[in-house]
Amino acid sequence: MFPNTETAPLLPKEINIFKNYMNEQSDPIRREVFNYSLVSYIISNITPFPINIEFYYNNRLENDNFEDFINFLALSYLKYKLYTDSNNIKKVYFKTEDLFYSNYFIKTFFDYKKPVNDRDISEIVWIYPKESVRAFISESFFNKNYGNYFYNEMTLIRLIMIMAGFSKYEISSLDDCPSMELKQINYPTLILANIGLYEKELLKIQEGIDGISVFLDLSDKEEKEHIFSTDRELLKRTILKVINETENLEYTMKDFL
């Protein structure tokens, strides 16, 4: 599928720092959450890249070849970026694991669903970084919110579903608890509280060969920035949407204690 492409000794610096960040995370949620400093560095080094228009429209977003499509976009970005950096590159060499990180990089930072036509060459379209990423950088900078975090809605939904499962386990354990006050804590309130503990790193999520686990960590911590609860009302509404739709429940905002 990719003629004359073998595998590259050097990733572009924006993908390399992204790869290093990913490798540092054992938590599948924090792997999808990026602080202002990291996103700012990436967006200052990222560049739009061209794609053959016929290939794009013949292959985009089809379920049976979606990963091949992303592979092609990732390789196209790598080759274009390395070519523009060196001007004389003939072949590009990549490790398989580097292509994995490059694929995820494309999915995270590029709006591959909205190609832009080239003004002069009808045979190509350009893939640009997501507007949401640029908006995050602009809003954080002008509001001086340098502790902000960038993530997409699906990351928050996954966190809520993980904490919902953990909260069900806690609720089932309350049958043996003598405190009536604890027994009166309801489901959405417990999910909200657990997300707060997760932000403080008192609750941790880890992904291993046996799946995802949630565990308590009471070691000393520095004060942490809010990630998901900066807009508490939005977080509450998202919790309700997730649990009501996935579990056929009817909780409302009045149910939060």
Describe the structure in brief:
This protein is mainly alpha-helical and 257 residues long. It has helices at 13-24, 36-45, 53-59, 66-86, 96-109, 131-142, 153-173, 180-183, 187-199, 232-247; strands at 34-35, 49-52, 116-117, 124-127, 149-150, 203-208, 211-216.
Largest sheet: 3 strands, antiparallel
- The total of helices stands at 10
Assess the beta-strand content as a share of residues: 5-15%
What would you report as the Rg, rounded to the nearest angstrom?
22 Å
**Neighbour order of strands in the largest sheet:** 2-4-3
Q: Spell the H/E element sequence.
A: HEHEHHHEEHEHHHEEH
Oligomer: single chain
Mean pLDDT: 87
Described by the principal axes of the CA atoms, the overall outline is: elongated
> Alpha-carbon distance between the termini?
56 Å
> Helix- and strand-based class?
mainly alpha
Question: Uncertain regions: pLDDT < 50 for 5+ in a row?
Answer: 1-8
Q: What is the number of beta strands?
A: 7
Helicity, as a percent range: 40-55%
